[in-house]
Amino acid sequence: MKLGTLFNQKEVVLSIECFPPKEISSYEKMQSVLRNMKTLNPDFISVTYGAGGSSGGVASSDIASFLKNDLSVESVAHVVCMGSEKDDMEKIVQNLKDKKIENVLALRGDESPFRPLSKTFKHASDLVTFFKERGDFFISGACYPEGHPESATPKKDVEALVLKQNAGCDHFFTQLFFDNNIFYRFLNRARKVGLSRPISAGIMPIVRASQIERTIKLSSASMPSDFTKMISRFQNDEKSLFDAGIDYAVSQIRDLIESGVDGIHLYAMNNFEVAKRVINGISDLLK
Ligand code: FAD
What we know:
By secondary structure, this protein is α/β, with parallel strands linked by helices. It has a single domain, classed as TIM Barrel, CATH 3.20.20.220. The protein has helices at about 5-10, 25-40, 60-70, 85-100, 125-135, 155-165, 180-190, 210-220, 225-235, 240-260, 270-285; strands spanning about 15-20, 45, 75-80, 105, 140-145, 170-175, 200-205, 265. An 8-stranded parallel barrel has the order 1-2-3-4-5-6-7-8, surrounded by 5 helices. The two termini are about 20 Å apart. The model has no long low-confidence stretch (mean pLDDT about 95). Flavin-adenine dinucleotide binds near residues 48, 49, 51 and 160. Flavin-adenine dinucleotide binds near residues 107, 124, 125 and 148.
């Protein structure tokens, strides 16, 4: 099923992001995590592609296929421009078609030692066009409530999203954020310049002290004062930080749903307990 059907039918679409294990030997464990995730009834699960610049491990298309074809959970395969030229991308498209994957998150990716810049695909919008020309895919794109770090101004940032939409992008996922006001301001800016596709808000529950530095570094998300207060109060108390991190994410999501958000995308970091606690905390709003 294409995600468009879900966004047409549901008040709010709930999704979870997962990432492939780095070691092939961890795949069975991952499959069992995904079986557990299925019991939470997410509308779909997306699978990252070499996020953070990594390479190797289980292919994200294999996990997307396992979700869709073995578990009957709708899936989204992330695909990045970096490291691929036209012939490579033709193979990627064919592989996704062979696996009956209909939903793709088209991304530029970031340069890494494993992935040089692509000469063919400079922006995610080039990938969107490429996929749209080759099949009946539902294509999502990434967006950034605080602006992509390379965007000159917030206005230029949302204008580039409209280019992505004009190329055929059907839906957007946001980068994670901890301050809903930043998301609401972004939404205003984006709608004003003509971004009309549904947008899923990306929420990452921070439940371990070790997550904090890495997450902030990778996402450049700003931290509102109630968030920093929570971190400093509980950072040396593992159990309380876990509970407080879940509570923070739940209240962020409740506010977003009550404000009419199109979708919630949960960055649960392959952690079933985190996904379960958060989804239980919002279940009354999902009916
Ligand atoms: P683009 O849309 O190409 O944008 C990059 C920059 O170029 C922006 O500043 C934009 O404003 C500008 N721009 C875009 N189009 C144009 C244009 N036509 N003309 C001029 N300027 C333009 N990375 C991974 O490696 N693997 C993943 O699985 C992954 N998953 C992600 C999931 C989500 C929800 C998000 C938010 C990010 C994810 N990323 C992932 C990270 C992403 O690859 C990086 O943030 C990357 O720096 C930008 O990707 P993009 O698709 O937004 O790029």
